[in-house]
């Protein structure tokens, strides 16, 4: 039997970007600071043309454009790799990823990839935190995790963990309490 004509096929790629709120939040402190400085210095000769209405209009337009224009920053999930779009572009094949987890630093949660070569890659998207809340953060993480487990290949095996000072035994001939020579 064939598939029904109404059945949806999985997408070839998925693009995850920053939310509109996350794109505009970095501008808010500067907008407030500009308004405060403008109001605190009424008698100076440095007054922008148009006065306070022009400054307010400038910041409103900037915030609206930041919210409406699509972000170039984000990630793309393809069948062969995850593509990280920052100011540079980086591609990590699914087979090179050994694990992923959510890490929290100062209240902000981000997705971190652990690669076969030992590199730790923190993704800029998805992220969530106090002022940059993303209500779909867990859903986006599950999507990335599902793509990884689905597309990493049938011959994928976890890489052996590289030895480190905290997970290796000292040599038998050396007393563990004496400093190394």
Brief summary:
The protein has 181 residues and is of the alpha+beta class. Helices cover 28% and strands 24% of the residues. It starts with 13 loop residues before the first strand and ends in a 30-residue tail after the last helix.
Walk me through this protein's architecture.
This protein is of the alpha+beta class. It is built from 4 helices and 7 strands. It has helices at 20-24, 28-40, 51-68, 137-151; strands at 14-17, 74-77, 81-85, 89-93, 97-105, 108-115, 120-128. The strands form 2 sheets. A 4-stranded antiparallel beta sheet has the order 1-2-3-4, with helices on one face. A 3-stranded antiparallel beta sheet has the order 5-6-7, with helices on one face. A hairpin with a 3-residue loop joins strand 3 and strand 4. Helix 2 runs antiparallel to helix 3.
Helix/strand structural class: alpha+beta
Which spans have pLDDT < 50 for at least 5 consecutive residues? none
Q: Helical region count?
A: 4
Cα(first) to Cα(last) distance is 72 Å
Q: Name the strands of the widest sheet in spatial order.
A: 1-2-3-4
Helix proportion range: 25-40%
Please tally the β strands and state the result.
Answer: 7
């Amino acid at each position: 039997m064939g598939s029904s004509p109404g059945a949806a096929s999985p997408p070839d790629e998925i693009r995850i970007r920053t939310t509109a709120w996350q794109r505009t939040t970095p501008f808010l402190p500067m907008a407030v600071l500009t308004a405060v400085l403008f109001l605190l210095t009424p008698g100076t000769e440095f007054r922008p043309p148009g006065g306070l209405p022009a400054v307010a209009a400038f910041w409103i337009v900037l915030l609206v454009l930041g919210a409406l224009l699509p972000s170039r920053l984000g990630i793309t999930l393809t069948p062969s790799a995850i593509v990280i779009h920052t100011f540079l572009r980086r591609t990590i094949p699914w087979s090179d990823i050994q694990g992923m987890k959510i890490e929290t630093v100062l209240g902000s949660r981000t997705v971190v990839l652990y690669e076969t070569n030992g590199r730790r890659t923190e993704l800029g998207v998805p992220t969530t935190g106090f002022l940059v809340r993303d209500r779909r953060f867990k859903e986006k993480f599950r999507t990335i995790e599902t793509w990884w487990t689905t597309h990493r290949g049938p011959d994928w095996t976890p890489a052996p963990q590289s030895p480190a000072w905290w997970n290796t035994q000292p040599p038998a001939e050396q007393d563990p309490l004496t400093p190394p020579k």
